[in-house]
Structures are given as C-alpha cells and as structure tokens.
Amino acid sequence: MLDLIIAKFNYWVYIVLMMIGLYAMIAKNNYIKKLIGMTIFQTAIMLFYVSIGAKQGATIPIIDHHGDGGDHGEAAEAVGHAVETAAHAAGSLDPDAYVNPLPHVLMLTAIVVGVATLGVAMAVVQKIHDQYGSIEEDEVLKRIKL
C-alpha cells in the first residue's frame, strides 16, 4: 500500500490541494477566504494537467535542424525549406520521445482566465463591502433580507 502511495505521490498532492480549496469555498463565510479557496482549487487542477503532460525521459517537442549554412535570400524559399524539412523529419520521429505540449499550453490559458476571474471576483467583493459594509456571507445575507 505504501508503494502505491509513493508511486502516485503527485496525484495525492493534487487531491489534497483540491480538497483544501473545495473546503474553503464551501465552509468559509468570508468572501476573500472563498476566493483563496477557489485559487487553490484552480492551482491544483493546473498542476494536475501539467503533470499528466510530462513523460519520464522525454524532451521538448522541438526539431533541431542545422541548416546547410547558406543564405536562402528569400523568405518564401526559407519557409518552403522548413516545411520540407519538417515533413521529412516527421516521418522519422518517435512521438514517445517528446512531451505533449498541449496540456501546458492549455494551462497557460487557464492561468490567464484564473487571474481574470480572481480580479473580477475581488472587484465584486469590494462592491459588496461598499454596499453592505461586510464581506462575511451571513451578514450580507441578513442585510439583503432587511
């Protein structure tokens, strides 16, 4: 059992982080604490996706092509040469030797969305505080009912 836990240690870390974030979002009454929980939850998901995109012993997916040293002179000729080289190289590449970049790229987008979401949520919390004088959920709900 211990070997299973150690072998999948990163997954256990993600689960713990997700549960901490989920607990903070559900159990806390302070809106800022809820936002901190949301951010922890988002971070756990991002770490999970980056982790599943990694491979043991793999490298980044960049084809290293050393040119013939000559100056092609025109951009069209250079692009044509690059396409030919990539097409030729693609047939001889082992996909298992490279890390899948898609999860990493998607998580870059998720980071941007997460920061934007946090910024909007903080602005909403500020407006709630201005209007109701508190950022505690119970107090705000009491003042809404009055």
TrEMBL record:
Protein name per the record = Cation:proton antiporter subunit C
**Is the keyword Membrane in the record?**
yes
Q: Which residues form the signal peptide?
A: none
Q: What is its main location?
A: membrane
Tell me its family: Belongs to the CPA3 antiporters (TC 2.A.63) subunit C family.
InterPro entries given in the database record: CPA3_antiporter_subunitC, NUOK/Mnh_C1-like
Instruction: Report TM segments.
Output: 6-26, 35-52, 105-125
Decide whether keyword Kinase is in the record.
Answer: no
Alphabetically list the UniProt keywords. Answer: Cell membrane, Membrane, Transmembrane, Transmembrane helix
Q: Which Pfam families match?
A: Oxidored_q2
Q: Where in the cell is it found?
A: Cell membrane
Gene Ontology CC entries for this record: plasma membrane
Q: Which domain of life is it from?
A: Bacteria
